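User: Sequence recovery, please. Input:
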């Protein structure tokens, strides 16, 4: 999964970087990888978001989206430690 700063979209374009103090940050891109498969805890094994996080993504604030991505990254690491890295991300 790309680092958080690579998953941000800016008004000036996908690859543009805002200048220091620039408020042009518009939207954090969904971490969805279009490989949805929920485990027994209702966590997607594609993006590692919970079903509630997936359903409420569009209504979440940018700060909430950053927290969701952080939690998904933690779940992904935990999954790799528990089951190995045989699943392609």
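Assistant: Recovered sequence (89 residues):
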């Amino acid at each position: 999964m790309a680092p958080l700063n690579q998953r941000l979209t800016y008004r000036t374009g996908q690859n543009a970087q805002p200048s220091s103090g620039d408020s042009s940050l518009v939207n954090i891109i969904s971490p969805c990888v279009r490989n949805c498969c929920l485990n027994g805890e209702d966590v997607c094994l594609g993006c590692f978001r919970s079903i509630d996080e997936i359903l409420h993504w569009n209504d979440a604030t940018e700060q909430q989206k950053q927290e969701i991505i952080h939690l998904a990254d933690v779940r992904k690491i935990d999954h790799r430690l528990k089951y190995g890295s045989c699943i392609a991300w």
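The CA atoms of residues 42 and 51 lie 6 Å apart.
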